[in-house]
Design brief:
The chain is mostly helical. The protein contains 66 helices and two strands. Strands 1-2 form a two-stranded antiparallel sheet. Helix 14 packs parallel to helix 17 and helix 60 packs parallel to helix 63. It is globular and about 120 Å long. Keywords: Repeat, Ubl conjugation pathway. It holds the Pfam family TIP120.
Length: 1324
């Protein structure tokens, strides 16, 4: 387009004699171009004139004009065409070489600015225009003046560094890598000043990140040779620093060279100095020697972090040398006992004239000690699997270094000891802050969960097994007294460092610090009353952590008279974080003042808390305070109420604070924290008067249920359940009726967790306020009945619905028994044509549970009539065709009747009802498979309630059917009967371990209805006592059927064996063990599966240990079915908490990983071709085993990360990503977990999995394009996106060029863009 006239005028003005006009013209022209080029481009002639005008201003006599030109040019060049950009970049590069010395830095600055402003698409033209010029400036003599040449090389190196950092991955200039590398290495010679050499090192580091492996190998060889041949300490130090910079930039890629680098650097750090006089670095050039060793240790630190496993062979030597160097202090002379050398107060950093140290003004040995400590910290962080060794070798020496005289090094000692402390516990990713409501919001709002929520002290951090060694060594080294002395140090930094270390101990090992708190009190008080806000804040955090995990309340009660006046003063501190933390401390501390809330509060404690209530009331009413202070005031108020809310002396203060609390509850900003506090109060066992706040709080929360946020609706429902449960009788029924109307719309299966909370709220309201029954019947009942017929109903939601039907019985005038029974017996929804048999079975099972719960709680006549009616239905259908083969409604009715009768039999004894057992057995011969299966399950349920009678008959039936099977030579009908009887036995044992749902707390009043109704209510039977006499009869039958041809038979037998193993291991173990060694593969499979079922039910570890060798042998069995069962058992053993110690041996874990690797290999012999007529289909018989192996591997990784999370897993992932889609999904999960636990292991072999990842994604995208299995493929692509995101978040992943190229390629695929949007950020 033609340029506007004002652009030409502004270009002219840029050459005006007035510098102000030149300045303003440049700024105006820049803005005009920005506005103009958003719609259309400038023509080439105008663009050339504009660029020339700005280049001219770069040589302007005014510094302000030059600086403005630099800024403006960076903004506009990116908006021009490629030709103009090439001209500008080339011109600036030439000016860096040819311009006057006074303006050369301006051109270089402008060039670097343009490099970072230009888009990625300009990388090629930038490299073509700039790299040759910069290489020329580095290699050639441009001027006759050596000083000028050096300045040019310095600027060119600086520009090249920024260019390689921005566009180094562009392959266009890769042919120039060798010349650039040689040129930069030449700049490391001693002929150049240190500033040039420093820039060259930084540039070599960036260059190494984009080098090929061959070129990187050559570069490292040259650098190591120069290290060996360096003739001066400064030269050696420079080359060592360069190796370290390369190592930090290339990351894991330097691992293959560590066999040469590590021994060299360790030798430079000094030979074994044990027994010597620390004179290795005490020569005339001690400072240079210190620099050399410091750089060696700094490089080794990066190697330890980035190449963890490659450094393992050198760990022992590295620990020994690092400890020796951490003590290296040639100017320190020990004058006696170490403990006597530690001075207090202002003398802690001073030494007398005769004393302990020479003048250290020129002493640089502290650099060596500091670098050695950082190496030890890196070792502790990167090798959690060697903590036992580290704790034994490092704890005492590091504690002894607390006497370090140099402050900077002393702070590093604190940090290193802190790393030892942090490594002693397993750190969770989930937040555990005092205001984290959501961490408990997901808990089920039952009385048990409320008790857990109400706990008066936080759970202690989970310690690693090696923590005991550290605690023992830490105490033996007398560490805490040494640390206490540093709290009295005159240096602020030292006090801060010591306090930070104490805070780390309080956070990770609070029980070890608690006994020392009284001795720490004077220094803590001094810190809390001091003028340094950071010290005050750290002291408050330390006290909060200790109070949150208190063990001995008397310790905190003894400190309360001193601390509480200080806390009250700090509540009004001008720094909001201190005021907020003071409130947190008060909220946590109050639990220790009244550890037993059944006892009255001591009178002295009342005196400390009285002023706190007044302060809390003020904080709750103030509007002009920080948000964090408001939230912490609510937190403190909730915990104070929960602990001392029943104390009469505080009643007036509490009443005055309740309405301001309600105002905070209504405030959108603070209501979430207020809800958390309200739930804390409801969870308290105390009787706390909340009458002024109850109605407004419930009414407001009811109105908030329509909030669009699901998480907030969940929080509101959770708190409402707690409020109604505790204070429901005090609330007017009209308020609760409106609440029921508001929550009913969410009683649906689209969100079962919300539905569960709504059902709890409805049931709790009905139980505590009977006047709400009409509204429940009119508004809620229809939704509940609809939810009962959901095929996905399960878990806590189902329990809540059963609880509901147990309560509606108490209101027959609103819930007529006959009507409720009829509505629950309606099976028509399960008979629709679109309803599958599995879905129908789920619906009928739910309805049967609801009917049983309703009937058991009903009056005697209703209960008896229901049982008789069911028995009549069962008797009439025994062995007959029900209503014709097409009449599915009648079949479903019989199926529901038998299941409901069985569920009822779990809760009452059916042996008193004539014909009950015969009715179940008679249905075994029904022509309908659904009825036969239901009768087997129902008989198992009924046996649980009549153990003394039904169990004996059931075992006898199994025994007699076994004899008839042998006599009839395995007749089909007899076999079916036998299978059904075994299924019943399985249900008996399974129901015992699952436990019969206990009556809900609110139903206690109805608990005795069974006796009144004339039906014998039963207590939880002791199955072991009932079953033991029959075990010897049952076991031979189970063993015989362990080799059945039918897999369903073997599964039932395995489950029975596993369940009985829990009940009578003495009898079952000798029977089960021989099955592992039999020649029949089916029997071995059954035995291994039995072990899996036993482990899943929390089998005693001693029982499992007796069968451990058999399980290990099964993992190497030659039969696929046995190995598959063994792998599944291994997975269950890993994920079951009671049995994880079975695999605790490290060597066993390593052997398991290697065995699993064999099972993940594709065996072509197991792939067979099936002829299906029109086409042929390949069947992989080894796939189930491979899937089981990867599943077991994922479980091993989660349970034993210290041993399993290694680079070896990347070999599994490489193989699995080329396998079946199901295996690829498992590999993505393993890769994600490994990236979180040990990112270094992922980075070291990341390049290896790029190709299989690429192929797997390409295949999935192709399937998506063709419309094949769209839902499954979409789920897989979402999983790939999350996996790639996790790997991409590892900083070193950006140094893996193949992976970055893969991301760049996949980001261009429009289909994949719909599943992830992080790639645009990845390319910046």
């Amino acid at each position: 387009m033609a340029a506007p006239a004002n652009l030409h005028q502004l270009v002219i003005e840029m050459g005006n004699w007035d510098k102000d006009k030149r300045f303003m013209a440049a700024s105006d022209l820049t803005q005009e171009i920005i506005n103009c080029s958003t719609h259309q481009s400038l023509d080439q002639s105008t663009a050339t004139k504009v660029c020339q005008a700005f280049l001219t201003q770069l040589e302007d006599q005014s510094i302000d004009v030059q600086g403005n030109a630099v800024k403006c040019l960076a903004k506009i060049v990116g908006r021009f065409g490629e030709q103009q950009i090439t001209d500008v970049m080339g011109r600036l590069a030439s000016l860096v070489l040819d311009a006057k010395a006074e303006v050369r830095d301006i051109y270089a600055t402008c060039l670097k600015g343009l490099i970072f402003e230009l888009h990625d698409s300009c990388s090629t033209i930038v490299c073509q225009a700039v790299i040759p010029k910069m290489l020329q400036g580095i290699t050639q003599t441009v001027s006759n003046n050596p000083a000028t040449d050096t300045a040019i090389k310095e600027e060119c190196t600086d520009v090249l560094h920024d260019l390689l950092k921005r566009f180094g991955e562009n392959k266009m200039w890769f042919n120039e890598q060798e010349p650039v590398s040689h040129a930069l290495l030449n700049l490391l010679s001693s002929a150049y000043r240190p500033s040039v050499r420093k820039r060259a090192i930084a540039c070599i580091g960036v260059l190494s990140a984009v080098m090929s492996d061959r070129q990187l190998h050559g570069l490292i060889r040259v650098l190591l040779q120069n290290v060996r041949n360096a003739n001066t300490k400064s030269n050696k130090q420079m080359y060592i620093q360069c190796v370290g910079t390369v190592g930090r930039n290339v990351g894991f890629r330097i691992g293959s060279h560590l066999s040469e680098i590590a021994p060299l650097f360790l030798s430079i750090c000094g030979e074994d100095r044990e027994g010597e006089e620390d004179t290795a670095m005490d020569g005339g050039d001690a400072e240079a020697e210190h620099e050399v060793v410091e750089n060696c240790l700094t490089a080794i630190e990066s190697f330890v972090i980035k190449c963890t496993h490659q450094m393992v062979p050198y760990l022992d030597q590295l620990i020994k040398k690092s400890l020796a160097l951490a003590e290296y202090d040639p100017n320190y002379y020990a004058g006696g006992d170490d403990d006597d050398e530690m001075l207090d107060g202002e003398e802690a950093d001073e030494y007398d004239d005769e004393g302990l140290a020479e003048s250290d003004d020129d002493d640089t040995s502290w650099k060596v000690r500091r670098a050695a400590l950082k190496v030890l910290s890196a070792l502790i962080r990167s090798h959690p699997d060697r903590l036992e060794k580290f704790y034994t070798a490092l704890t005492a020496p590091l504690v002894s270094r607390l006497k370090e005289r140099e402050e900077n090094v002393r702070l590093d000692v604190f940090n290193t000891v802190g790393e030892l402390v942090k490594a002693a516990v397993v750190h969770q990713d989930t937040p555990t802050g005092p205001l984290d409501f959501e961490s408990s919001g997901a808990e089920r709002s039952t009385s048990g969960a409320m008790a857990q929520q109400e706990r008066n002290k936080a759970a202690l951090p989970r310690q690693r097994p090696a923590a005991a060694i550290f605690i023992k060594e830490f105490e033996r080294a007398n560490a805490v007294p040494l640390m206490l002395r540093h709290l009295r140090n005159s240096s602020l930094k030292t006090r801060q460092g010591a306090l930070q270390l104490f805070k780390t101990i309080a956070q990770n090992l609070p029980t070890e610090l608690e006994p020392w708190l009284p001795k720490m009190l004077p220094e803590l008080v001094k810190g809390l009353q001091g003028s340094h806000s950071s010290i005050r804040l750290d002291a408050l955090v330390l006290l909060f952590l200790q109070a949150e995990h208190y063990q001995d309340a008397s310790v905190f009660q003894g400190m309360a008279p001193t601390l509480y006046p200080i806390f009250l003063k700090l509540l009004d501190d001008s720094y909001y974080k201190i005021a907020a933390q003071s409130l947190r401390v008060c909220g946590a501390y109050v639990y220790a003042l009244r550890p037993d809330r059944t006892e009255p509060l001591d009178t002295p404690m009342e005196q400390y808390l009285h002023p706190l209530w007044d302060a809390l009331q003020a904080k709750l009413t103030q509007a002009d305070i920080d948000q964090e202070v408001k939230e912490c005031a609510l937190y403190c108020f909730g915990h104070m109420l929960a602990v001392v809310g029943d104390v009469p002396a505080f009643a007036k203060s509490i009443d005055a604070a309740l309405m301001p609390f309600v105002d905070r509850l209504k405030n959108e900003v603070t209501r979430k924290t207020a809800l958390a506090s309200l739930k804390t109060v409801c969870a308290s066992p105390l009787s706390i008067n909340l009458d002024p706040a109850l109605v407004p709080a419930i009414a407001h929360l009811s109105s908030l249920l329509n909030n669009q946020s699901r998480s907030f609706r969940q929080i509101c429902l959770d708190v409402l359940v707690a409020l109604v449960r505790k204070y429901g009788p005090k609330v007017d029924a009209s308020i609760l009726n409106r609440l029921l109307e508001d929550c009913t719309p969410y009683v649906k299966d689209t969100d079962l967790h919300i539905a569960d909370l709504c059902m709890q709220l409805i049931t709790t309201t009905l139980a505590t306020v009977p006047a709400t029954a009409p509204v429940v019947a009119k508004t809620c009942m229809a939704s509940v009945l609809t939810l009962c017929r959901s095929p996905i109903l399960q878990g806590h939601t189902l329990v809540s619905i059963l609880d509901f039907f147990g309560h509606v019985v108490d209101h027959p005038q609103h819930f007529p028994h006959k009507q409720v029974f009829t509505e629950l017996s309606d099976v028509s929804p399960s008979c629709q044509a679109t309803t599958s048999s599995h879905t129908a079975r789920q619906i009928l099972s739910t309805l049967a549970k609801c009917l049983a719960q309703f009937v058991v709680k009903s009056p005697a006549k209703t209960q008896t009539d229901a049982i008789k009616g069911w028995l009549k239905q069962l008797t009439s259908a025994s062995g007959k065709e029900v209503g014709g083969a097409s009449n599915m409604v009648k079949v479903r009715e019989i199926e529901l009747a038998v299941l409901a009768l069985g569920e009822t039999g779990r809760l009452v004894d059916l042996s008193k009802h004539k014909g009950a057992l015969e009715a179940f057995l008679g249905l075994f011969h029904s022509p309908h498979e659904e009825i036969r299966s239901a009768s087997a399950i129902g008989l198992g349920y009924a046996t649980c309630g009549a153990m003394s009678t039904f169990l004996k008959v059931l075992v006898g039936q199994i025994h007699s059917s076994d004899r008839s099977t042998r006599s009839a030579n395995g007749a089909q009908n007899t076999h079916k009967t036998h299978y059904l009887l075994l299924t019943s036995l399985r249900e008996v044992v399974a129901q015992h371990h699952a436990g019969t749902p206990a009556p809900p707390p609110a139903a206690a009043a109805a608990g005795g209805a069974g006796e009144m109704n004339g039906v014998k209510s039963i207590e939880q039977p002791t199955l072991t006592e009932h079953l033991k006499p029959h075990v010897n009869k049952v076991l031979p039958i189970l063993v015989e059927y362990a080799s059945s041809e039918e897999e369903s038979d073997r599964t039932v037998v395995a489950e029975c064996l596993g369940q009985i193993l829990l009940l009578d291991p003495v009898a079952v173990s000798p029977t089960l063990a021989p099955l592992f060694d039999t020649d029949d593969a089916k029997s071995r499979t059954t035995a291994v599966s039995a072990l899996r079922f036993a482990a899943a039910k929390q089998c005693d570890i001693k029982t499992l240990e007796g069968l451990q060798p058999q399980l290990m042998r099964a993992l190497t069995d030659s039969e696929l079915m046995v190995r598959k069962a063994a792998l599944q058992t291994l997975n269950v053993v890993c994920v079951t908490r009671s049995s994880t110690s079975l695999l605790s041996d490290v060597q066993m874990q390593q052997n398991l990983v290697e065995q699993l690797f064999k099972d993940t290999q594709v065996d072509q012999k197991l792939i067979r071709e099936v002829d299906l007529g029109p086409f042929k289909h390949k069947v992989d018989d080894g796939l189930p085993v491979r899937k089981a192996a990867y599943t077991a591997l994922a479980s091993l990784l989660n349970v034993y990360p210290d041993t399993v999370a290694s680079g070896r897993l990347m070999d599994f992932i490489h193989v699995g990503l080329a396998d079946h889609e199901d295996v690829q999904v498992l590999c993505c999960q393993i890769l994600t977990t490994l990236a979180h636990i040990n990112p270094t292991a992922v980075i070291q072999k990341l390049e290896k999995i790029v190709d299989p990842l690429d192929k797997a994604l390409a295949k999935a995208l192709k399937q998506l394009s063709s419309g094949q299995e769209v839902e499954r493929v979409s789920d897989a692509l979402r999983l790939y996106t999350r996996t790639l995101q996790t790997v991409h978040d590892i900083p070193e992943a950006r140094q893996c060029q193949p992976f970055q190229d893969f991301l760049h390629k996949i980001s261009r695929n429009q289909q994949f863009q719909a599943f992830g949007d992080f790639y645009s950020a990845a390319q910046v």
